[in-house]
Design goal:
This protein is mainly β and 175 residues long. It is built from one helix and eleven strands.
Length: 175
């Protein structure tokens, strides 16, 4: 009986060691995002009206304001952010670059709905842990493009909100 108890205690101790590392290394801030492309193929009659940013405890956030119903998007890491149509590179600070395409133009029949004061610095990201620069690329053939220079290729998520319509991009501060 004593031998059985020793074997049982040894097995339980070994099983306990297997579970400790998994419990001791949770994901950063509970985030389960990845760094692969994120997309929604929908198009709408919305137009782009503004770009804003914010810092949060675990991520930096970029918000793209739209009029009308929420539009789709494609957000992905690229070697170089390029303008649609011309293919001209958009210079960005950072070690990694997110190309953001929103399926909504920055113009309507009345003219431009979004005209950045400085195409190279859409928002001030000074002091942000992850963002290094946000720059305008172009609004071409019904979609708008911009680039985000980030500190490194980090996990991100993209989602949309209604009322008011927005496309939101969150980039984690670390893995």
């Amino acid at each position: 009986m004593r031998r059985f108890l020793v074997i049982l205690i040894t097995l339980l101790a070994c099983a306990g060691l297997w579970t400790v590392p998994a419990a001791a290394t949770p994901s950063y801030c509970g985030l389960t995002w990845g760094s692969l492309d994120k997309s929604d193929p929908e198009y709408s009659s919305a137009t782009l009206t503004n770009v804003r940013s914010g810092r949060h405890e675990c991520f930096d956030r970029l918000v793209i304001d739209l009029t009308g119903p929420v539009a789709g998007y494609l957000v992905r890491y690229v070697d170089t952010v390029a303008e649609d149509g011309s293919g001209a590179p958009v210079p960005l600070r950072g070690s990694a670059f997110l190309q953001v395409t929103v399926h909504a133009p920055a113009y309507d029949d009345g003219g431009l709905t979004y005209l950045p004061a400085d195409r190279a610095e859409l928002v001030d990201v000074t002091g942000y842990p992850t963002f290094r620069q946000v720059a305008w690329a172009v609004s071409f053939e019904g979609q708008s493009n911009l680039g985000i220079g980030v500190r490194a290729r980090l996990p991100f998520r993209v989602f949309t909100l209604d009322g008011p319509a927005r496309v939101v991009i969150d980039v984690a501060h670390r893995w």
